[in-house]
Specification:
The protein has helices spanning 17-21, 54-61, 84-93, 101-104, 111-121, 128-141, 148-151, 160-172, 190-207, 218-224, 242-247, 252-259, 266-271, and strands at residues 2-12, 27-38, 43-47, 69-74, 77-78, 94-97, 178-182, 210-215, 227-232, 235-241, 311-314, 317-319. The protein is of the alpha/beta class and 326 residues long. It has one domain (2-325): Rossmann fold (3-Layer(aba) Sandwich). The strands form two sheets. An eight-stranded mixed sheet has the order 6-7-8-3-9-10-12-11, with helices on both faces. Strands 2-1-4-5 form a four-stranded antiparallel sheet. Strand 7 (178-182), helix 9 (190-207) and strand 8 form a beta-alpha-beta unit. Helix 5 packs across helix 6 and helix 5 runs parallel beside helix 8 (160-172). The radius of gyration is 21 Å and the shape is globular. The two termini are 27 Å apart. 38% of the residues are buried. Bound molecules: iron/sulfur cluster. Iron/sulfur cluster binds at residues 252, 291, 293-294, 297, 299-300, 304, 308, 321-323.
C-alpha cells in the first residue's frame, strides 16, 4: 500500500558569521533516512517524543512538506515524482487529520462549508443536491446527527470532540484510502479520546482505510495500531507488531519509553521499574556521531560510536541497535 524508502527532510539551520565565511552549511535533520511499509487496511503507529520527526514524516509523505530526498511509493507510484496535477489527484486518496481541530477549521466558515470544501475544490459533484447529500452522509458517518443540526453552525459553537469529528468528516469526504492521523486526540479531554479512537476504528473497517497514526502516547498506540514504529531524533529505532513491541521491547529507547507508560493498577505499577535516562534529547543540528541514542543510552558501549543499521532481528521485527542481533 505505502512504502517509504530512505526519506530525508533537512531544513537549513542558521550559521554563525564565521561559519558562513568558511562556507559551512548546517541542517536540522528532522527526518534522516526513514524507511517503513504500511499494508492495506493496517494501522502503523509512529511513536516518539516531541521533536523526534513523527509529524514531519507524516507531512513529507503527503508532500505538505517537500522532502530533501527519498521515495514514497503509493499504489505503485512514487509520490515524490508527481507533478502538480498528479499531486492533486493523490491528495484525494491520501488525507491528514491534524492534532488541533480548532486550528485546522476556519472559524469564519460554517460546518457545511468546511466539510464541502474538498468537494468544491475537486469539482466532485455537478449539482448542489448531490453535494448536500454527501456532506450529510459525511456528518452522519462521524456521528454528528441529525446532520442538519450541525451544518449551519460555526466551529466555536461545537465542543472539542465535535470539532474533531468535523475534521474527520472533511478528511473522509473524498473517500481517501490512506490517512495520516497526527495526534488526533491529544488536544481532547480524556473522556472524549476513546470515543474518537473508536470512531476512527469503525471508519477504518467501514471504508477499508489505512492509517499512519502519529502519537507520543504508547498507550494510545497500543490501543489503536497493528504495528508500532518508534522514532528518535529523525530515525526509526524499532518496528514490530504492537503487542510484541509493547510486551518485549528490544531497543533500549523503546524500553525507556515503555517503562514510563502509566499503569492503572497500583500493585503492578509498584513492581515496574522505570528506566531513567540522563540529559536532554540532543539538537537535530548537532547530532552525536554513531548511534543517536548513545549520549543517553544506559547500555552504551564503545561500538555504539558507529552508527547501527535498522535490521530484521526476527521475522517482522526491525531494530537499530548494536546490542540486538538475530
Ligand atoms: Fe544504546 Fe548502543 Fe544500542 Fe545505541 S546502539 S541504543 S547506544 S546500546
Amino acid at each position: 500500500m505505502l512504502e517509504v524508502k530512505d526519506l530525508r527532510v533537512w531544513f537549513p539551520a542558521r550559521t554563525s558569521f564565521w561559519q558562513s565565511l568558511k562556507g559551512v552549511s548546517r541542517y536540522v535533520k528532522a527526518v534522516d533516512g526513514v524507511s517503513f511499509t504500511i499494508k492495506r487496511g493496517e494501522v502503523l503507529a509512529l511513536v516518539g517524543e516531541s521533536g523526534s520527526g513523527k509529524t514531519t514524516t507524516g507531512k513529507a509523505i503527503l508532500r505538505l512538506i517537500e522532502p530533501t530526498s527519498g521515495e514514497v511509493w503509493f499504489e505503485g507510484v512514487n509520490v515524490l515524482s508527481l507533478n502538480k496535477k498528479e499531486l492533486k489527484e493523490f491528495r484525494r486518496k491520501a488525507q491528514i487529520i491534524f492534532q488541533d481541530p480548532f486550528e485546522s477549521l476556519d472559524p469564519r466558515m460554517t460546518i457545511y462549508d468546511i466539510v464541502a470544501e474538498p468537494l468544491k475544490v475537486n469539482k466532485v459533484y455537478g449539482s448542489a443536491d448531490e453535494e448536500y447529500d454527501a456532506v450529510a452522509k459525511a456528518l452522519e458517518d462521524v456521528r454528528l446527527v441529525p446532520p442538519e443540526d450541525f451544518m449551519t453552525r460555526f466551529p466555536h459553537e461545537l465542543s472539542g470532540g465535535q470539532r474533531q469529528r468535523v475534521a474527520i468528516a472533511r478528511a473522509l469526504i473524498l473517500r481517501p484510502k490512506f490517512i495520516v492521523a497526527d495526534e488526533p486526540v491529544s488536544m481532547l479531554d480524556a473522556s472524549i479520546r476513546t470515543q474518537i479512537l473508536e470512531l476512527m476504528e469503525d471508519l477504518r473497517k467501514e471504508y477499508g482505510l489505512t492509517y499512519l497514526f502519529i502519537t507520543h502516547d504508547l498507550a494510545q498506540a497500543r490501543y489503536t495500531s497493528d504495528r508500532i514504529a518508534v522514532m528518535y531524533l529523525g530515525r526509526i529505532m524499532e518496528i514490530g507488531p504492537t503487542e510484541e513491541v509493547v510486551s518485549n521491547p528490544l531497543h533500549p529507547y523503546t524500553k525507556v519509553l515503555i517503562s514510563h507508560v502509566p499503569i492503572p493498577d497500583p500493585k503492578l505499577a509498584k513492581s515496574r521499574k522505570k528506566i531513567d535516562v540522563p540529559g536532554e534529547t540532543p539538537s537535530p543540528i548537532d547530532l552525536p556521531p554513531g548511534c543517536r541514542f548513545y549520549p543517553r543510552c544506559p547500555f552504551a558501549r564503545e561500538v555504539c560510536k558507529e552508527e547501527p543499521q535498522l535490521i530484521e532481528v526476527e521475522p517482522g521485527r526491525w531494530v537499530s541497535c548494536h546490542l540486538v542481533r538475530s
